[in-house]
Amino acid sequence: MEELPKTLESTNSSTCHREARAALFTTINSRTRTSTRRPRGVSRPYRLLPRRRFRNITASANAINERYFGNNVYDPLARPVADDSKAVDVHFKFLLTGIRSLNPITHTLISTALLCSFWKEPRIRWPKRYYGNISTIRATPEMIWTPDIQGPIGRSNEVQTKSFNSLINHQGNASRCVFAELRSLCRLDLASFPYDEQICRIILRPHGLSARLVNLVMNNVSESHPVQYGEWIVHAIKAYTHFNNYGPIELGTGVIEMRLKRTSAHYRWSVCIPTASLLLIALVCSWIPRRQIRTRQELLSGLLLSNVLLLRHTTVLVEGAQKLPNILVLQNFCLGLVTVNIVSTSILQGCPSPTRGGRIKGHETFGVAIGKLDVFGYPTVGALLILWTLFVA
Fold it and tell me: Which intervals hold domain Neurotransmitter-gated ion-channel ligand-binding (predicted)?
């Protein structure tokens, strides 16, 4: 019976130790929490999208999808108008991103651009507060009606687009932006080469079954910076709507007008300055005195060779021109002037001077001149005819 108080005493002591340890851990935890408390002015870190909110948005998006695009309620082939006889206004915006090629032989311009279409979709509207404050949704081209903007068939215009989604907000405003490759016909007028300025037009119009009831309205063109391709730079872009009569309704066709200008100064030194120099030297050669006839003939021979090479170089540069450039006309005039100088020099060289050999008979002078022309003049005239046949005719 004496051991019972010891057992009770040991039990009470273990309980006291347990309470003391619990109090100690409570004090340590409270100090730790106090030390890690955020100072004033520091915001509490939060998640971008809480889990509960994310679940609500997912459910709201599914509800919108089920309401408008489920159970075949929405017809993507029908135009977004209440009256089928009315046209749909599609606002169009054009942003040029680059030029891939400009072929002066086939007169084709291949460019890349961002094409954006904006229209009203009154059949798809929802209150934001009932659908988790969702303001915008994405839809594939198979889900909603989208305008098919392309180039007219048979006019060498093509628009190649990929499948891009459309955006629809809760007020029924729809938009669709696509990156497209535009292939258009661009007639190059090289009459003022190399100081020429070209105007290329891209014609866009709606296609499809309801193309005649889609009115294309061109907005202002976004010009962030001039686009340069090689020696060409697009320094001005203009977009306007060309109205056509389709029965009782007047609908618009979009026209994009681009002005291209040469920016390279390479042709000034390789074409313009050599042509002016040859023309000036050919005029000066006609004033060389008769006693220096050999120097004149050698100089004219060098001018003839230089003129032929320059004419060939310029012809390659303006290949495909429908109208003869002015620079080629000037070079051909210079070539003819050099040829006339060579022929006259040959005649003068064949005619003896009166002070040296005295007077000679006319038929002898004519025979000597014909002999000199047979050696030098006939090949020159033949070469001139060949050049005229190849480059001009």
Answer: 71-242
Domain range for 114 is 57-262
The verdict on 147 and 295 lying in the same domain is no
List all residues 6 or more positions away from 238 whose beta carbon is below 8 Å from its beta carbon. 221, 256, 257, 258
DSSP 141-154: TTTS---EEEPPTT
Q: Taking the alpha carbons of 348, 354, 357, 363 in that order, is the dihedral positive or negative?
A: positive
Distance CA 324, CA 189 (A): 9
Considering the domain boundaries, does residue 363 fall inside one? Answer: no
- Give the C-alpha separation, 132 to 58, whole Å: 9
- The percent of the chain in helix, strand and coil, each rounded to the nearest 5, is 40, 25, 30
pLDDT tens digits for 332-374?
888 887 887 777 777 666 655 554 444 444 444 444 444 444 4
Query: What amino acid occupies position 100?
Result: R
pLDDT at 160: 55
CA gap 102, 110 in Å, rounded: 7
Q: What is the pLDDT of residues 246-294, one digit of tens each?
A: 444 446 677 888 888 887 778 888 888 888 888 888 777 777 776 777 7
